[in-house]
Amino acid sequence: MKAVTWQGKRNISVENVPDPTIQEPTDAIVRITSTAICGSDLHLYEVLGPYMHKGDILGHEPMGIVEEVGSGITNLKVGDRVVIPFNISCGYCFMCTRGLQSQCETTQVHSKGSGASLFGFSELYGSVPGGQAEFLRVPFADYGAVKVGAELPDERYLYLSDILPTAWQGVQYADVPKDGVLTVYGLGPVGQFAARIGRHLGHRVIAVEPVPERREMAKRHGIETLDFTKDTAEELRSMTDGRGPDAIVDAVGMEAHGSPVGAFAQNAVGVLPDKMAQKIMETGGSDRMSVLHSAVDAVRRGGTISLSGVYGGMASPMPLMTMFDKQIQFRMGQCNVRSWTDELLPIVEDPSDPLGVMDLMTHEVSIDEAPEAYKHFQKKTDGTIKVVLKPQGVTL
Question: Domain named Alcohol dehydrogenase-like C-terminal: which ranges (predicted)?
């Protein structure tokens, strides 16, 4: 089969690799009809290379048709249409039964001290082959795979694999008061949905984003927008009676713009041998912190900051005195996808499309075009906001 593979920093290629096979009774093999490039994939493309191996199959936002099921599968059959959550969870362990599927004790990567295994996301999360491929082996498919209808287009359902529940969890964790103001930093795919979800739940939403095309997309959904500058925190205070927003979702993470020290650290780590680079990342500060520091400055006293963006530095500096003085609450973590899919499924199937899932994809390309699509997404060129790959070919 064809698959998108990691070959080095900013170097991916589409290769022919062996088809996956059933390995456990609760496995399923899924023929992938749509699979998206995520902002987290760019971390592998740019920053987390020390944890990658040449030939690793990328991708953790897939959906498709069940081709084969293991002997232990009771609720899936060949021909079912399914969305695959990015975290691999068993459904029966201590963590899963408490709605913390991203911490699944059955699939935790103990060798790295990490949470649940993830599709296509480096040795930090199990080196499990990902979903940017023609076929995917899905462990614990009896619990993880989300069955969906057969009539609506893939893009109605595809984002249930990651970015929609990630945004939903981010807003829930932000705990916006009933008449409160939510600010979203970053209008990539997760930020777009977080802003729309905030509006859907009745909040005033102000989004901060340096790329004009992304601000324009958000404005179509009733979102107020600001450019990201050194004066952003002061602008937000001026728009909120001098206090700042009640809650902030950081949908950017480790590769924020305007962080020269963090950028230098990430570039320096990128040229070191893998083991040495891993050690530095696991003990030092290697994140670009401009967005998070701006959020700490901007949020009102007693407010909440919710981190949906991924951070990878173990000792990245934080303004603890300010955080303590302002009584800021933080919530964060990988999304517990299966905790939210049942709630989100009827929303994405609503004919009115209240979250605008059909207004996110900017590029639909064949799997062979993935390397070029990664370049545009990483550089934010060609108006790229969300790329969907079609491993079975693009239907014209």
Answer: 189-255
Q: Is the pLDDT of residue 262 over 80?
A: no
Per the CB < 8 A criterion, the answer to whether 337 and 165 are in contact is yes
Tokens found for residue 129: 């082959």
Rounded Cα distance between 133 and 30, Å, is: 10
Fold of 164-332: Rossmann fold (3.40.50)
Q: Check: CB of residue 58 under 8 Å from CB of residue 371.
A: no
What was the pLDDT predicted at 288? 73
Q: Contact 208/384 with Cβ under 8 angstroms?
A: no
This prediction has a pTM of 0.90
- The superfamily CATH assigns to domain 2-162+336-390 is Medium-chain alcohol dehydrogenases, catalytic domain (3.90.180.10)
